[in-house]
């Protein structure tokens, strides 16, 4: 099994489901502090998200990379808004300037409303077909030793050759999307397939589907898996659930009385979001301590399920996912900066120790 990798999230403004965004949309001091909190806390990598209403991720990643020395970055990127040849050069240039610390998270887009805000009116299955073609071109730009032509259903290129290549031998490609069309593209292209925090049975099912799709391209043993969760920690289980109750109450109050949010204005038709809502409909708490009420409240807008308990209890639950073949875990809190520090002190060391203590780790997910 691949080495454990722990990810966080860096944004440019202090905000969450329980904290209304305040101040400028780009706060350099906060962005730097959040990046350094993750680096100093022992995170391996941080996600830079994508949405039609937020600052440009390429520039955020470049800024955060300049403020850190070790921390790696996962840049969310939607195909279809710039030419893949240009995106390939942008990504390779950023990888060079960051010292080989970049990966790209391909997000095709699950909301028709959200896509339309950036002028994209393709249907979902067509978007995934375009993504397939897009990634083909990205990889050719990064690897072809001489000028190449490309004739795909969405992109045609003549004589392309780039003098800039990623510093890494291979720029890692993360991939999100749970529909059949998405899984087919992930099986062909993804180095890492990203899941939301579903039940163990749900994760086992999806891992099996993705491995089967990858096997069609001879890649079943090459693809890795990432899981995104919102840990809620406290010194006792009772205190952790009390904190979860306060988070839910604060989130409800903010939705009722807070300022309008661009995140609330887009219907999310993504299969992954619908799976997360189905998880929530199955109960407020699933498996040992998977808490779903925020996902139900916000319509599964992104990473919104939690593991609730003491650090030791949360690690115990995380190991169940690890045994299903998950080797990359993305953690972000409802108090973004404070929780990043808390995870670095109290969760990450315990989790790494627990994984290292397993004498013969192995995946038991369905092949």
Précis, in short:
The protein contains twelve helices and 14 strands. It has 367 residues and is an alpha/beta fold.
Key words describing this protein structure:
single chain, about 375 residues, alpha/beta, TIM Barrel, eight-stranded parallel β-barrel, four-stranded mixed beta sheet, 12 helices, 14 strands, disordered C terminus
What is the rounded distance between the termini? 14 Å
Mean pLDDT across residues: 93
From the 3D structure, determine the CATH topology: TIM Barrel
Q: Which H/E pattern describes the elements?
A: EHEHEHEHHEEEHEHEEHHEEHEHEH
Shape: globular
Number of strands: 14
Q: Determine and state the CATH class.
A: Alpha Beta
What's the alpha carbon Rg, rounded to whole Å?
Answer: 20 Å
**How many helical elements?**
12
Range of helix content: 40-55%
**Major pleated sheet:** 8 strands, parallel, barrel
- Which architecture does the CATH hierarchy give at level 2? Alpha-Beta Barrel
If you had to describe this structure to a student in words, what would you say it looks like?
The protein has 367 residues and is α/β, with parallel strands linked by helices. The protein is built from twelve helices and 14 strands. It has helices at 28-40, 57-67, 84-97, 112-117, 124-143, 180-189, 200-215, 237-257, 271-281, 293-297, 311-322, 336-357, and strands at residues 5-9, 45-48, 72-77, 102-107, 148-151, 156-160, 173-176, 192-196, 224-229, 232-233, 285-286, 290-291, 306-309, 328-331. The strands form three sheets. The chain has an eight-stranded parallel barrel, surrounded by seven helices.
């Amino acid at each position: 099994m691949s080495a454990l990798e722990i990810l966080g999230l860096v944004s440019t403004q202090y905000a969450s489901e329980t904290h209304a965004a305040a101040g400028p949309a780009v706060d350099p001091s906060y962005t730097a502090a959040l990046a350094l909190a993750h680096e100093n806390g022992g995170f391996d990598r941080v996600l830079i998200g994508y949405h039609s209403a937020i600052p440009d991720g390429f520039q955020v990643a470049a800024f955060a990379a300049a403020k850190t020395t070790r921390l790696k970055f996962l840049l969310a990127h939607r195909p279809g808004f710039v030419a893949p040849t240009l995106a390939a050069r942008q990504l390779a240039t950023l990888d060079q300037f960051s010292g080989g610390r970049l990966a790209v998270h391909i997000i095709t887009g699950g909301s028709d409303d959200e896509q339309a805000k950036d002028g994209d009116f393709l249907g979902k299955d067509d978007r995934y077909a375009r993504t397939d073609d897009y990634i083909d071109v990205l990889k050719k730009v990064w690897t072809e030793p001489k000028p190449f032509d490309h004739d795909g259903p969405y992109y045609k290129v003549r004589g392309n050759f780039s003098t800039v290549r990623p510093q890494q031998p291979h720029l890692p490609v993360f991939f999100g999307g749970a529909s059949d069309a998405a899984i087919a593209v992930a099986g062909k292209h993804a180095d890492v397939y990203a899941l939301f925090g579903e039940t163990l049975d749900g994760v086992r099912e999806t891992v099996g589907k993705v491995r089967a799709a990858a096997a069609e391209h001879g890649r079943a043993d090459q693809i890795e898996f990432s899981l995104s969760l919102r840990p809620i920690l406290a010194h006792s289980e009772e205190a952790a659930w009390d904190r979860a109750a306060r988070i839910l109450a604060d989130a409800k109050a903010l939705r009722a009385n807070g300022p309008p949010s661009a995140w609330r204005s887009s219907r999310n038709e993504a299969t992954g979001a619908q799976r997360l809502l189905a998880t929530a409909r199955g109960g407020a708490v699933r498996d040992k301590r998977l808490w779903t009420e925020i996902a139900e409240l916000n319509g599964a807008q992104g990473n919104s399920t939690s593991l609730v308990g003491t650090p030791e209890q949360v690690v115990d639950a995380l190991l169940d996912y690890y045994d299903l073949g998950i080797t990359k875990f993305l953690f972000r809190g409802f108090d973004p900066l404070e929780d990043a520090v808390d995870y670095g002190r109290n969760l990450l060391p315990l989790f790494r120790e627990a994984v290292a203590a397993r004498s013969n780790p192995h995946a038991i997910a369905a092949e």
